Amino acid sequence: MVIDGKINKLKLIIILSYYNIFFNYMTSAIKNISSTTTFFENKITWERTLPIDSYKILKEYVEFDSWVEEQSFTDWYAIPSNSSHLITSNSFVTFIDTDLSFNEIYRYVITPVNGVTTYAPENVVIYTQSGNISDLKHNYSQNDASFNITWSLLSDITVNTELTWDISWTEISGNPIQSHYATFPINDQSLNVTNRQRKVYLHDRPYLYADASYNYQINGTYTNTSNISWTRASNAIQITPYSTMDISTNNVPYGPRGNFYNYKKPPVLNTVSTGDNLGISWTSSSTSSEIPDYYDISLSHVTIPDISYNIRVTDGLTLTDPSRNVQNYYPGNYNIRVKSGYGYGVPVVNSLFSEWSSGSSFNIPYHAATNFEAVSTNSKVKLTWKNPIESVYMITSYPIPESYDITRRTANKQLDYVFDISINILSTDVSHNDTVGIYPRIYAYDLSANYNS
């Protein structure tokens, strides 16, 4: 009986030991488990409720709709509670994992251990970010034709992440159509980031061209700079539209494409009238969101290409010749056009103008001098006149007029005027002193203006 009693006692001890192990495994030693995720960093925090000397951490990922253990990680992370891989503050413990792929689902099973006692495991599931951009927009400034692209990320960049953006853009313009394609890389740290929003202008295009279409897209290359001591084979390749990556790099495909048509609609020329003054009117075709700052009126001589006049109108849709005298323009046939102008800050002419409107033609007659007078004193006759143009409108190579001809005629007994002499005078002269041989006698003078056309 004694022997049987010892056997029964031994059975009881064994049963109690198994019960104790089972009971401890069902006992939770950590609570308030939580997690956060950013690029290449999953952070898990929990609160310890019992003495713990180590943790076994199982890491799993989803493959073909099933959880798959990441064996190399699990073997590595049977770690003591005082390990440098854990951040401990009083009873709170934080674990950080940086061996991550984008757009992945991870599950961490954390089992506390104290000596031979294993406590109930706790688990947490984390969805890592895709790295894709969001809120892709552009901002065009009418004043200086500058163009900025903005986009955002859903998370801040961690210290163990290096991010390079690849901006690809295309410009389509002209008739015949011409295309310009360019890409440029830029490091995320060099950008001005406000509330996770980035902003950059198109390199090679600090300002846009008018009537050109722009398409743009952005790709991000994320590099994991942390010192990773384990690996998983499927991390080695990230499938993208154009390349494969090694373990430390995640290349995010190009995001949604943005486009912008910098169309400047030309105005419609209505009426052109000539008389004592030149009058022009037109109608704006621009939208209410992009009102021209001014209009440029071009007067181009039909037969002399070097002769043209440009007048800027900043108020209204009409022009009354600012010289108040149509004689200020070189005579001949002209073609007149008008275009819309935007802003004042760009040196490239076609950046901020619409195309020209359809043209209209008109004629400016030959101009004659005015206020022609003659005053005689014995044998001297002083001739004076007024030039038909104000000097401010003068085109140096084409003065108005080119020159003057003074013709003198003498009256005979029948009072018929007979040609006497002709003198060529510079266009800059406004007077001439004539000496006559016989006086008293009646003389007649004619003053004519000479032009090239």
| Helix run count | 2
Mean pLDDT: 81
The shape is rod-shaped
Which structural class matches the secondary elements?
mainly beta
Major sheet size, sense and barrel closure = 6 strands, antiparallel
CATH superfamily of the largest domain: Immunoglobulins
What's the CATH architecture of the largest domain? Sandwich
CATH class of the largest domain: Mainly Beta
Strand content: over 45%
Tell me the distance between the termini.
144 Å
Q: Give the helix proportion (percent range).
A: under 10%
Number of domains: 4
CATH topological fold name of the largest domain: Immunoglobulin-like
Which stretches of 5+ consecutive residues score pLDDT under 50?
12-19, 230-249
- Let me know the number of strands: 31
Give Rg in angstroms: 45 Å
